[in-house]
Amino acid sequence: MTRAPGMTRTPGPPRTPATTRAVHLGPRSLLTLALVSAVGVVAFGWPFLAPPTSQVGTHTQDAPWLFAGLLVLLVAVVAAALAESGLGPKAVAMLGVLAATGAALRPIGAGTAGIEPMFFLMVLSGRVLGPGFGFVLGNVTMFASALLTGGVGPWMPFQMLAMGWFTMGAGLLPVPARAQGRTEVGLLAAYGFLAAFAYGTAMNMAGWPFMGALASDIAFDPHAGVPANLARFVTYCLATSLGWDLGRAVVTVVLTLTLGPALLRGLRRATRRAAFEAQVTFEAPER
To answer: pLDDT tens for residues 154-179?
Structure first.
């Protein structure tokens, strides 16, 4: 089909990108995030990494505390690096609103297995605003909610890092920018379901060594091999947190499928108006 002379093509409405980079991940930020994540993997998984002949067995009750203190410093370092890479005032305002909303949603399900609506908000926010913003949002939200609910303890740094991974992962999902709609919502729901179990498993790994001799059949045994401890850990997860993790996963899926489309549109409208990626320039006043 050819256009008649003089006719111009009317451009359609601009398509909103699936992910808006509110925080740009430069080489230094990526390196810092990778190093902190590597240390975090060791902090969570050290019971399976230390051989039975090592001296870790004599520090079973001390290691989680040491890793908790280390993670506080490392999370602060990566948050500072991401902020330096481009967390402007508009992104800070968005971060404050979303973190406050997530922190307010967390106590709703306190004491009720699996009713944790904050997780679906983290998934959608990470998807729209990108992995860098998502990591900072997960950290700040979990820190604020811990202060709000009184859940401050050695587990809090592990929660902050795990939630940072949880939210960052949504921003890393390989969905094309044009795949908005049911395809995107379905993928986010599937991610939320799997990531809810991954979050619960990670937090089980953080708290499992604290059991000591309270439950000898499922507690961490520093003198046992990896297969034996892995069997103990699986039994521990099935006995203590499977119902909670399943409830969290189901609630995340239901809220994503029902409220997700409207919230995605609202977040993208807010980010479009905020214009995070627009360069701010100042012009000299006319004389």
So the answer is: 778 888 889 999 999 998 888 665 66
